[in-house]
């Protein structure tokens, strides 16, 4: 599990409120199996790139980054910011709203600024909870790759499994008992050194995205103890939406 570190960053007011509430709840409802957490850089800007299996994922990711001495910033869907009170809390906690309609251009700029300022930014590379029927990562979006290529900051891949047992995908009903085991394995930084100096063309971004997703899938295979799929699930080829609940019937 590695040796946990003391938090070195200054805590904002939102973190002073959230940590004493959220962490005891997670400790009461989950068992943590952190592997490789010491690979999370102690200081400096970086991108933590994870697979996405549950709406509770940001809490479990915040848990491991907190345990290893970092506060995390997230790319969060803009709908969460419609409530002014929640929006104020999320912004105070450093979260970054993503407008999917504008391809997240503003969020990209803010994420780049945060990484360049030495912060850790969490990115769920798939852009949404996986639509793969077996829960494996689906094809990735380019956000993490573009931030990394723009900043030159390290991309730290993480494979996770188990959070979906606490809160199944798109469910509002958690299953807290018995305690669920959340497994996270942190990998070595993804090598993008040959791509960063190049012009960031569509092909270069696609290659960077492929390398990041490849590292994540390998880690997910390890925490699941299973062989990785030969090909990642592609929602477009399967005829399902890449975002939102695939089981929800459209409004008439």
UniProtKB/TrEMBL annotation:
Keyword Transferase tagged: yes
Q: Which UniProt keywords apply?
A: Acyltransferase, Transferase
Which GO MF term does the entry hold, naming one? Answer: acyltransferase activity
The biased composition feature labelled Basic and acidic residues covers: 227-237
Instruction: Write down the SMART domains for this protein, in alphabetical order.
Output: PlsC
Report domain Phospholipid/glycerol acyltransferase positions: 46-163
Report the InterPro entries cross-referenced here.
Answer: Plipid/glycerol_acylTrfase (IPR002123)
* Disordered, as annotated region: 227-252
Q: What is this protein called?
A: Lysophospholipid acyltransferase family protein
Its source organism is Nocardioides panacihumi
């Amino acid at each position: 599990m590695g040796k946990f570190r003391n938090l070195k960053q200054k805590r904002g007011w939102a973190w002073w409120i959230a940590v004493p509430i959220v962490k005891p709840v997670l400790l009461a409802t989950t068992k943590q199996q952190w592997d490789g957490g010491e690979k999370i850089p102690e200081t400096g800007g970086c991108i933590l790139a994870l697979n996405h299996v549950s709406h509770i994922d940001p809490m479990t990711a915040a848990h491991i980054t907190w345990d290893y001495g970092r506060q995390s910033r997230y790319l969060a869907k803009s709908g969460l910011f419609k409530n002014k009170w929640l929006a104020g809390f999320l912004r105070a906690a450093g979260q970054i709203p993503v407008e999917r309609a504008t391809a997240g251009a503003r969020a990209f700029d803010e994420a780049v600024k945060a990484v360049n300022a030495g912060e850790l930014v969490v990115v769920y590379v798939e852009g949404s909870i996986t639509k793969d029927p077996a829960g494996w990562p689906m094809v990735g979006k380019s956000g993490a790759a573009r931030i990394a290529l723009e900043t030159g900051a390290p991309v730290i891949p993480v494979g996770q499994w188990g959070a979906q047992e606490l809160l199944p995908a798109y469910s509002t009903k958690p299953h807290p008992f018995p305690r669920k085991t959340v497994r996270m394995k942190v990998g070595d930084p993804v090598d993008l050194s040959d791509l960063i100096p190049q012009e960031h063309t569509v092909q270069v971004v696609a290659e960077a995205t492929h390398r990041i997703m490849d590292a994540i899938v390998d880690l997910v295979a390890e925490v699941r103890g299973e062989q990785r799929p030969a090909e990642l699930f592609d929602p477009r080829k399967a005829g399902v939406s890449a975002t939102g609940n695939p089981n929800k019937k459209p409004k008439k």
